[in-house]
Specification:
Layout lengths: L4 H12 L7 H7 E6 L17 E6 L11 E6 L7 E6 L17 E7 L2 E10 L7 E11 L8 H13 L8 H19 L5 E4 L5 H5 L5
Parallel strand pairs: 1-8
Antiparallel strand pairs: 1-2, 2-3, 4-5, 5-6, 6-7
């Protein structure tokens, strides 16, 4: 394994190039966009703006190893408490071993905000003679939120890398091209109105529930 910036850029670009380019049918079925109420009243925003302030997109990789594994990309503004995380839901075992008929899936949550932590939830059989399952949680916290000032530390690291000439955390041209190859068809379809622009109340999570059909 080589951990120099060039090798890392090449590996990241190789994965991004495997993103399945969505068809119009894919975009209609697997993308969602919305704008929060009051957005058009903000100074500098056009009164007829159709810019989305929330999106949800289902992506796939053209790769044998990841065949059938969906990647749900989601982000937005005015959704209440700021939250940045990666949620990994593990494939349900077949045949199902859940005794009650309720299907349980193990999960790994990597959270960056509001708290830097890793949580692993898994299910196991309860001790004893009965065949019942119960959830368990592993929890690791990097540091308490008060010890971290948002963005200050991140930009300080990038500025230091600039001085050192270390490009590892920066995005290469090939990565950008691969990303736009995936997003361009979606943005073009949205501009043409292929996917309706929904509305949601600011500082709430209601739009997330509305978009839950994207799975």
């Amino acid at each position: 394994q080589n951990f120099d910036s060039k090798s890392i850029h090449e590996k990241r670009a190789a994965i991004l190039k495997k993103l399945k380019i969505p068809s119009k049918k894919d975009i209609e079925k697997h993308t969602f966009r919305a704008q929060h109420e009051g957005y058009r009243d903000i100074s500098g925003v056009a009164p007829d703006s159709d810019t989305e302030t929330y999106f949800k997109v289902r992506a796939e990789l053209n790769d044998k190893k990841w065949k059938g594994v969906p990647f749900i990309l989601e982000g937005g503004k005015r959704l209440g408490t700021a939250q940045k995380e990666i949620q990994i839901i593990f494939k349900h075992p077949r045949p199902c071993l859940c005794p009650t008929g309720e299907h349980h899936k193990n999960e790994l949550l990597i959270r960056f905000e509001p708290k830097e932590e890793i949580l692993i939830e898994f299910w196991s059989k309860k001790p004893g003679f009965s065949f019942e399952t119960t959830p368990h949680m592993f929890h690791f916290t990097l540091r308490e939120p008060r010890e971290h000032i948002p963005y200050i530390e991140e930009y300080a690291k990038l500025l230091l890398d600039c001085i050192r000439g270390d490009q590892t955390l920066f995005v290469s041209t090939s990565e950008i091209q691969a990303m736009w190859r995936f997003t361009d068809p979606i943005l073009d379809a949205w501009k043409k109105g292929l996917v309706p622009l929904h509305s949601y109340k600011p500082d709430t999570k209601e739009v997330i529930q509305t978009s839950n059909y994207i799975q």
